[in-house]
């Protein structure tokens, strides 16, 4: 499919030195699209569908892409833009061509990602193929990337996705594209990590803190995780907040903090977080990656001594080309490196840092007006400029406040004859959601110091409900919800029309909100409900639906032949491609001590298999289409046998267990379950079982074991 699209793009003028815009929702199709753009030789320009129209139009006018790949539903966002639009779905009808595709050079631009700009204009960062390859080669040596299972949790317009996508695709891994709604619902993300057996998880610290909260509430799910590496990036990490995770996951996974910015190709540093970091108050970012170098310099570009804070400069093979068509800005940030050879450059990050005596770098904040909130790098100047352009605004200022530890929010201050609610609404039409201040404060004048400069410390704390007409709760549910909103957000009162996010809520606070609501109101809401129904009044209706409108489950007659789910189709296809394999096996081994009726246990296993049809299902091709065929319970064979190994060595016992765990299922003629009981001594046994992932997932193990215990007791 990517080859077909690449040929079509070349026919429309795409190639080396050109750009192709990709306006697609997060999906496998979006990954195919950027792969096709790169195969055409062009650079991809990712555009998030959540961006406001004004920002999309600016990016297209600035980057001048040759063509845009989108969907029928999103094509209207490009109306009025002078660009050829390609509907991704229509490309399936094109025949693949045999002609060779252009081969880009290592120094050609691979992607152009726009970040916030100080003057109100977003700036495009041009990153080359060699930049990305060097990053991944370096981290492969550090982490061993081959064959891992990755998630893509981030927008294509956020350069974190570069690491997620190509870390999987370039090293023979599997990429799980996580729907945006799931990334907003930590409990659903945790379930996905278990089901998909994810081994590499990349998260901003804010998102991981929310996931960690759910993990502590669902310890059984957490124990089923197969994650080997968690990579943090996008914003400053607070290691002390990871202590609960470390306590419940003491053996794994590795926790890696990687400082980085778009201009240095995603990641620039490496630091493995240990227990000692959780006891400190620093934000350690470690050492530069092998293809990069760090300098901590004072205002005169002299190296700062150990322990002294200076500005961080980055040099080496990860530096981007510069800012798209912004020569002056590029020259001011990508400067000559006085410590390197002729032509050596270094990037002035604007971040403050200091070297420790251990040779590790510690992050100390920002030197300029750039802040990071929930992983997004934001230039306060861009928001200030947008505020100043609004009708009625005379003066404008924007700051990042942290009135409660760990709860950083953008707050806008304006003077003039304006309404705070109208101002926020106007900004929402111009800026991405993460750049819209949580509150707007209207002042008679901005406070000044004795020197006539803005006195930021004198700016008042905002009332996050200001600018909205208060409407009191009417029903009992609204009253409870308003109280929970106020408790979670630290407010005195909340009206039924107040939006959780307008009041300063974020994804982490949304997790706390839903946990409290479900506990207090005996409801069953997911975190995504807050994003879909953010006001008290709207969420009250969701609570009513969750509590009283759930119809009882009624068993229906099952057809004899059943189609496969999407996940099952993928696993079936892989088996057809590779042949029977144990790679998707889910083994379980249990030690049993005490008197055991082995016959009753075998019958109990048969009872469990009879009850759960997925455990006695074959996956056969019917007229070339895969179908599920349920086997009658009396015809089931799951390899049950009791083996006496009392005289065997530990190595021999382990070999038998490994044989059970590594059984290569032929899904067309074998049910996806095997179980063997080993008698290792007097009243000592080991139960070894394995189930194929096509029939069960990580969440299934605990219920199946509980069913087996009940069935054995009944026998």
Compact overview of the structure:
With 715 residues, the protein is an alpha/beta fold.
Number of domains: 4
On the 0 to 100 scale, the average pLDDT is 89
Question: Percent of residues in helical segments?
Answer: 25-40%
Coarse shape: globular
Please indicate the percent range of residues in DSSP E strands (runs of 2 or more).
15-25%
Top-tier CATH class of the largest domain: Alpha Beta
Radius of gyration: 29 Å
Report low-confidence residues grouped into runs of 5 or more.
none
Q: In CATH terms, what is the architecture of the largest domain? A: 3-Layer(aba) Sandwich
Q: Give me the CATH superfamily of the largest domain.
A: ANL, N-terminal domain
The largest sheet is: 10 strands, mixed
Query: How many strands in all?
Result: 31
What is the CATH topology classification name of the largest domain? Answer: Rossmann fold
Structural category: alpha/beta
Number of helices: 22
Cα distance spanning the termini: 55 Å
Cofactor: pantetheine 4'-phosphate
GO biological process, one term: monocarboxylic acid biosynthetic process
GO cellular component, one term: cytosol
Keywords: Phosphopantetheine, Phosphoprotein
